[in-house]
Amino acid sequence: MKKKAFVAIISASMLVSMGTGALAATKLQEIKAYLNTEVRVQVNGSHVDLRDVKGNVIAPISYQGANYFPIRAISDALDIAVDYDETTQTIIIGEKVDGVSIVDGFKDMYYTKDSAKTTYKGKDYKEAYFNDGPGNRSTSFMLYPNKEHQTLYLQIAAVNGDITALNIEDSDTNTTLKKIDVIKAEEGLVTVQADIAGVKSLYIHGDVKSDTVVFVPLTTSYYK
């Protein structure tokens, strides 16, 4: 069973525990339930310990013949992104309908708002990663999806040369999530898609030769 289908089935009966904001809701109903430490969970044939946001192993709540876990614990076990919109009190599992720009919180020495550098082929993207460093070099930056997104859509262009060995990695586990052998200058602005479910931080890096510029429009690169 695919991960998304599995989550869609079980999440309907999961206990919502996304934060203290939910406790302020006006339609809460008090119930009597029990912690059931005898229930064990397997994912794809392997036993897993479900954990809360602090890393503590948790047991399900048994109520009227059903077992309830926090959605966050299930999503972490399945590497499915989960987030909570406090405004609409909506739990979002998997990809979001609207993309979230990677520009929020982006920090790097090559970050710029200079229109001379944020403009590519006549369009001003307002904010960009513009690596025009000297000589043959590695080009790299960090992103922090914080386990709240399913997919990264990264727009990137090579100018005056090629980008080789482009890697998108989970920086906490050093796991390669996406690898592109080469992005050629003549390809223009390309979109690289990577599954980032369950990932807190991303390390994105590649190699370029002298005079090559790496252009990433931050406003149109996004998470979903």
TrEMBL record:
Keywords annotated in UniProt: Signal
From the UniProt annotation, give the residues forming the signal peptide: 1-24
Name it: Copper amine oxidase-like N-terminal domain-containing protein
Which organism was this protein described from?
A: Paenibacillus anaericanus
Q: What is the lineage of its organism?
A: Bacteria, Bacillati, Bacillota, Bacilli, Bacillales
